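Protocol step 4 of 5: obtain the predicted structure for the target chain.
Materials: sequence only (see below). No template structures provided, no constraints applied. The aim of this step is simply to have a reference model before the mutagenesis design in step 5. Sequence pasted as it appears in the construct record:
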Amino acid sequence: MDALSNRPFRAGHAVADDGLHLYWRAVGNGPAIVCNNGVGVSTFFWRYTVDQFADRYTVLTWDYRGHGRSDPLPDPTTGEVGIPRHAKDLLTVMDAAGLDRALIFGHSMGCQVGLEAWRSAPERIGGYVLILGTAGRALETFADNPRSPFFFKLAGAFIEAMGERTHRLVRPILHSPVAWAFTRRAKLVDPMYASHTDMAPYLEHLAVLDMRMFIRTVLKMQEHDAWDVLPTLNVPVLIVGAERDAFTPIRLSRDMAAKIPGAEILVLADASHAAIIEQPETINHRIERFLRERSPR
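Step 4 output (structure tokens):
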């Protein structure tokens, strides 16, 4: 039984075309919802989604390669980690779970992954809920700082030069109380809404990731662009943005909604990039209405 929702679940590993095993877990029965994580995140941010919808839907969560319970990359310095690779893995996971078609949920980088899948398999996507993300080139709008790509490339060069020594530097910090204190003070989350209980799994997961793989994945987000996909979407779409999102400015959510025919948008006041765990009730209530009125399958 699922520990959170007390419902039956199925789990397994899909085998990608290059042999890597990708972990997936499906709770509930009914039309499918497939949840795509943000970068550096495992399935824990979707706990409120699973709890809300698994009584009527099959809610599938999964881990990207190198993340969570999926296989690590054989070589974290060269393994494929671009958005097209993750989109291909998404379809492989759906195959393994026996899902022909699904409503695609995406959080942060997961929005790019879901949109990229449209290029090769639009018939398998019944609609989108795009939460706190963008359609591409994510770093050039990070914190609305045009120099963000430069700083991330600089971080990538440092981590590459440090190699495995990076882990000896970063992991003790992420395991310490300093990480949560910094997250709050830097307003990466809203401490009035996001609890340490919700954020602890993220910090713990980040601490065990290979930092070389992580920074390469972040840099690949900048190389990807699915803005051209948006006008071609002919399925129901709900976009969720947050006014205080320091990672993905709210204007990107509005721009995406303007380019997608018939798209709906929810703008969260007083919410950050972690709104998926800060304001799950508000988000789930809006998704419920979206499902009821637009009934995407």
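Step 4 remarks: The longest helix spans residues 148-162. Strands lie at 9-15, 21-27, 32-36, 58-62, 102-107, 125-131, 237-242, 264-268.
Proceed to step 5.
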